[in-house]
Write a structure and sequence with these properties.
The complex is a heterodimer of chains A (232) and B (284). With 232 residues, chain A is mostly helical. Chain A is built from 10 helices and no strands. Chain B is built from 10 helices and 13 strands. The two termini of chain B are 37 Å apart. The chains are: A mainly alpha (232), B alpha/beta (284).
């Protein structure tokens, strides 16, 4: 691994995303919505930080997944990834550079959600950590979709339904018990549970186990798809 | 392994299913030469480039680039290679400068090299322009800049002048010659005979996966000059043809002396007619 090459990819990704509105909006939309809703809507009986945990969960399921899938599939479609690999950039260096960038931006997003939620100190750190674990799983899943897809359109056709399940199932679960029985096995639901419990109780064993299993499954999926399709 | 040779290809065969795309190809490119692989679309030119650049593993035979088997190309060899492939692989939203900055960092080049190479390819004024706003010719020059910026020892060019206007093609040719002058070995594919004749030290004519002729372009044309005639267009519009031999000298001299000659041409074939003679097929 060459840190200089990872940094070059990371820097390129920053420049590119600042000019890519489709990706940029993914990073900005939910934090902004959470800030607006939290400050403008106040209904009696509504749980504290309802909008923060709601949009933070959607952010976990959507932003890293779609961004990573779009970045990799676009590079494959346009042939830029092939040029990088032929210029002696290793696949791992590319994935760490691009993934590191998405993780960094999403961590800023997580910090922003935490600030809106009024968390400070250890609570803020716990909130950001819970989000970051979810972001990392979502990012790996997005990378797996990007690796599998030959074009952006192909990636979108897989990323959108996946993102819908991860983002909206936890919200639907709060209204429907049958949905809740299914969604409790999804990492975004468990991240939501941990975020809602911050300041009240710590992360439950069930949540940690489910998130851990999700993490392992996504790693296995990524490795399988990477070995099958590679980055070419 | 032979490190003195740029590229060595021995008995390369490539099959895709039942179809044989390359049949027992043998070639050697000495360091510093410009070699052109000529053939119509679908002849197998890009397949051979893919094998040489390690993108494809051949079905049979072996190939070496800078003394390294193409199935085991190392990081060190890749950093000595420059490529202009069929798909440009440019970042559309980034500027010309940012596109090159990425590769300058990858190749550990000083940032001053970016402006230097942009100047060489005539894109300094478009330095900050996004690739999406460049013309096709400017994009091709940027791709050339990216391929040349680290002064590669081997340059692979897949149809470098394809679909470009004549002035851009001329600029690209100048860049290729400059790279050669710096010692680079250049492997290019083209279906443009004129381009090959102007640029290449050696060419190979590829037809349905087989090399049907190899050599210096002028020597190949002379070899197939069966007619060996001289055509003279007279000022009255008539055309007279003489066999190219000593007996004709007096008659030709008479035409010149009486100031009847409008133009005079020898009838040696070009690479296209040689290809037609060898394969019965035109370049398309």
């Amino acid at each position: 691994m060459d840190i200089r090459k990872i940094y070059a990819i990371w820097k390129k990704q920053i420049k590119d995303t600042l000019k890519n509105k489709e990706i940029l909006i993914q990073f900005v939309m939910f934090p902004v919505l959470a800030a607006i809703m939290t400050n403008s809507i106040n209904i009696d009986g509504m749980p504290k930080n309802y909008f923060v945990s709601l949009f933070a969960t959607m952010y976990i399921g959507m932003a890293p997944l779609t961004a990573m899938a779009a970045i990799i599939s676009e590079e494959k479609e346009r042939g830029t990834l092939r040029v990088l690999l032929m210029s002696n950039v290793k696949a791992g260096e590319y994935l760490i550079g691009a993934g590191g960038y998405v993780l960094m931006i999403c961590t800023f997003g997580a910090l922003f959600f935490g600030m809106i939620g009024g968390f400070r100190g250890a609570e803020l750190a716990g909130f950001v950590l819970a989000m970051c674990v979810g972001i990392l799983i979502s990012l790996l899943l997005g990378a797996a979709i990007g690796v599998k897809s030959r074009s952006q359109m192909a990636a979108t056709s897989i990323a959108v339904p996946t993102m819908m399940v991860l983002s909206f199932l936890p919200m639907l679960a709060s209204f429907n018990d049958k949905v809740a029985k299914v969604s409790k096995y999804i990492f975004s639901q468990q991240c939501n549970k941990i975020m809602e419990g911050i300041g009240v109780h710590g992360a439950g064993t069930q949540s940690i186990v489910i998130i851990g299993i999700n993490f392992l499954l996504v790693i296995v999926l990524f490795v399988f798809l990477y070995r099958k399709y590679g980055l070419e | 392994m032979n490190h003195d040779r740029g590229i060595r290809i021995k008995g390369i065969t490539q099959k895709f299913g039942d179809q044989t795309v390359l049949k027992n190809i043998d070639l050697t490119l000495e360091k510093g030469e410009i070699f052109g692989l000529l053939g119509p679309s679908g002849a197998g030119k890009t397949t051979l480039i893919k094998i040489l650049t390690g993108q494809l593993t051949q079905t049979g035979g072996s190939a070496e680039v800078l003394g390294t088997d193409t199935r085991k190309l190392t990081s060190e060899v890749y950093t000595k290679m420059g490529m202009v492939l069929d798909n440009t692989g440019l970042y559309e939203r980034l500027s010309c400068r940012d596109n090159l900055a990425l590769f300058a960092q990858i190749y550990r080049l000083p940032s001053t090299k970016i402006r230097e190479i942009l100047k060489d390819v005539g894109l300094l004024e478009a330095e900050k322009r996004p690739v999406s706003k460049l013309s096709k010719g400017m994009r091709q020059r940027l791709v050339m800049a990216r391929a040349l910026m680290h002064s590669p020892e081997i340059l692979f060019l897949d149809e470098p002048g394809s679909a470009l206007d004549p002035s851009t093609v001329q600029e690209i040719h100048n860049l290729i010659r400059k790279a050669q002058a710096k010692g680079a070995t250049i492997f290019l594919t083209t279906h443009n005979m004129e381009e090959a004749t102007k640029l290449c030290d050696h060419v190979a004519l590829l037809h349905e996966g087989e090399i049907v002729e190899y050599g210096n372009p002028e020597e190949i044309c002379r070899k197939y000059n069966h007619q060996n005639r001289i055509k003279i267009l007279l000022k009255n519009g008539d055309e007279v043809t003489f066999q190219n031999e000593s007996k004709a000298a007096g008659k030709i001299q008479e035409l010149f002396a009486s100031e009847q000659v409008e133009s005079i041409h020898s009838t040696e074939p070009n690479l296209e007619t040689v290809f037609l003679e060898l394969t019965g097929r035109r370049f398309e």
